[in-house]
Amino acid sequence: MLSKNTICLWFDGSALEAAQFYAKTFPDSAVGTIHRAPGDYPSGQQGDVLVVEFTVMGIPCIGLNGGPEFKHSEAFSFQVATDDQAETDRLWDAIISNGGQESACGWCKDKWGLSWQITPRALTAAIADPDRAAAKRAFAAMMQMGKIDIAAIEAARRG
């Protein structure tokens, strides 16, 4: 790994599967080196995949197959800024259709329990609108959504 700072994500034996899914789903993502355990350890055996180096949209990560002890939570999420509804739909649908689950306000969770915020740039612009009434309308619309609907956000922003 060349990066001085890398996100380490804990998995229960599925780090390689997760890395492969992220690499095929998100642009500028790839699976790198796969490290196998040099000996037995509490959650696995010699030769099992222990660590997977990968990138998610250019962000260096490692997946550590550490066992069932720790679970992901909403305290950590990847936030993905999307440019249009087609990109928003593609990423959201890929996560959900691969065993994930929907949440509120553009959040969803993948099948490994990692949270994702699929956030259209139009939403960010709408809730930062200098016209505070327009921003409030867009924010209220977002609060009613799972996957973000850009047309509905823009309609709410316009009033």
From TrEMBL:
Coiled coil: none
Database matches in InterPro entries: 3_dmu_93_MTrfase (IPR009725), Glyas_Bleomycin-R_OHBP_Dase (IPR029068), PhnB-like (IPR028973)
Pfam families attached to this UniProt entry: 3-dmu-9_3-mt
Ranges for domain PhnB-like: 4-119
Alphabetized SUPFAM superfamilies for the sequence: Glyoxalase/Bleomycin resistance protein/Dihydroxybiphenyl dioxygenase
Family annotation (CDD domains): PhnB_like
Gene3D superfamilies (alphabetical): 2,3-Dihydroxybiphenyl 1,2-Dioxygenase, domain 1
PANTHER family: PHNB-LIKE DOMAIN-CONTAINING PROTEIN, PROTEIN YJDN-RELATED
Name of the molecule in the record: VOC family protein
Organism: Candidatus Accumulibacter proximus
